[in-house]
Amino acid sequence: MGPTTPPHSGQSADADVSMTPKASKRKPADPPQPQGSGSGPLGSGPKSGGPSRADKGKQPASTNPMAVQPPAQTKKPVVPFQHMGMPLLINRATKPNKSYASAAKSTPNILVTVAQLAKVAPNLPIDRIAQANSTVREKKSLRKQKTVFHNFTMLGPSRRQILISFNNKKIDCDFNLFVKWAQAALASAELNLHVLSMADAYGGYTVYTKEVPHPNTTNVIRGLAVSIFQTDALYVGLPTSTSYIKIMDVPYYRNVAKRELVTVDTIKGALGSSPLSEHFVLARNPCINHNSASSTTATVYCDLWDSQTGAHAKALIGRTIMIGRSLCMIREANKHRGVPVYQQCWRWGHPSMVCRAISIVCPHCNGPHKAEEHRKVASCCKGNANANPPILPTPQTITECPHKAHCINCGGSHAASSRKCKFWDHCFDQQWINAKYAEVCQQRLDSQNNSNNLRPLA
Question: Residue by residue, what is the 3-state secondary structure of the chain?
């Protein structure tokens, strides 16, 4: 038997294998590759052996069983009617200007009537219902209300004090003893008010308290002051503010034919005889301002002592008053402070915080002492035994200085606090005061130069 010949090139190797009995089972075919995959080792393409463009960003799955797998993200619970997406924008047109807490506090409390209480609690006695209703009303009345200030009222000092004045006189007082007696008198009168201290103020004394005193408290302090100082000629009361009103279309002439002008006494008499006289608490004389040169009417400006809330002015504004035969309307007026005068240096035109004076000035002699100390320390009242002839001291029985005064402002023979000074007549005219100061300074400078020229040469 000859050698076996190789199989024909056209036959496959499987043909010979299939002839053997062990090769009866056919080998499974390879799984079909996806369309577009190449013949490379990773099937990335027909020509290239690298990854495809779609698989470049993908990480191959880790085959290490010990690798730490990231935890699975839990899904958020779905809330019913939940708004999805961006939050809604705030409508600032409807946004409240204040907080909800303050808005809730400002809402008015609705009082429960007696009938409503009886309907809710029918078994409750009538006296208990009435007591509960009165308690609710008292709490509402005791609620602190916001104080409203008006443009026609100039606020004065704090009302947590009681002023004691003696009509331009001064009586010595032991402050500690007065405060002790005042506290005892208030306690005996069952008044719950604490007296803190006492000091010199406004030409007299002031008693500082913890709260605004009640009129009953003022009466107790007045009785104590009368018994201590042994005089009835004193004022005890609270400090006041100033309100400004004006009376329109007041007749400027009492008799137009005779050209008789209306006087301040006529205006004050009309105010005093009016049904509103209790509110006309004049701080100074009324000011009559002629409307025009050819007018027969005038406007009267009145300054009233008033409270910080302007109680007197509010009772007068909008009302009418009879002056002569004319019915005049009362209106509010702009508040005017005038030109300030500092009662330490007695100069006009500046308040206390910008005063440049080194020390206090006496309004009587311009010395460096207070007005109440003038009789004790002033050289004119102490006397001078070394003078020729000797000057005797002023007797102690004379309370006021009998010597000639000197005004620091105009140079006149009166005290700077006297109403005789021309500065007080122009206390609301800043330009006049500035011009007068310039004139007085120039006169003093000229007199000083003249005195220097008259001195004999050495």
Answer: CCCCCCCCCCCCHHHHHCCCCHHHCCCCCCCCCCCCCCCCCCCCCCCCCCCCCCCCCCCCCCCCCCCCCCCCCCCCCCCCCCCCCCCCCCCCCCCCCCCHHHHHHHCCCCCCCHHHHHHHCCCCCHHHHHHHHHHHHHHHHCCCCCCCCCCCEECCCCCCEEEEECCCCCCCCCHHHHHHHHHHHHHHCCCCCCEEEEEEECCEEEEEECCCCCHHHHHHHHHHHHHHHCCCCCEEECCCEEEEEEEEEEECEEECCCCEECCHHHHHHHHHCCCCHHHCCECCCCEEEECCCCCCEEEEEEEEEECCCCHHHHHHCCCEEEECCEEEEEEECCCCCCCCEECCCCEECCCHHHCCCCCCCCCCCCCCCCHHHHHHHCHHHHCECCCCCCECCCCCCCCCCCCCCCCCCCCCCCCCCCCCCHHHHCCCCHHHHHHHHHHHHHHHHHHHHHHHHCCCCC
Structure tokens that stand for 391 in this block? 């000057």
Banded pLDDT at 320 (limits 50, 70, 90): very high
| Identity of residue 386 | N
pLDDT computed for residue 421 by the predictor: 87
Cβ-contact 153, 306 below 8 angstroms: yes
User: Which residue's entry shows tokens 């104080």?
Assistant: 147
Query: What is the pLDDT, as a whole number, of residue 58?
Result: 52
Domain limits, CATH 3.30.70.330, in the chain: 243-332
**pLDDT in the model for residue 4:** 45
**Least confident interval from 76-80, 236-240, 280-284, 354-358:** 76-80
Query: Are 42 and 51 in contact, with CB atoms under 8 Å apart?
Result: yes
Residue 240 tokens read as 């006041």
Does residue 171 surpass a pLDDT of 90? no
Q: Which residues pair with 251 in a beta bridge?
A: 297
In one-letter notation, the amino acid at residue 281 is V
Query: Whole-angstrom Cα distance, residue 366 to residue 391?
Result: 20
pTM (predicted TM-score):
0.44
Specify whether domain 243-332 bears CATH 3.90.79.10: no
Q: Which fold has domain 154-237?
A: Alpha-Beta Plaits (3.30.70)
Lowest mean pLDDT among 42-46, 154-158, 412-416, 441-445: 42-46
Of 133, 149, 153, residue with least CA distance to 141: 133
Q: What size, in residues, is the chain?
A: 458
Rounded to whole angstroms, the Cα distance separating 413 from 416 reads 9
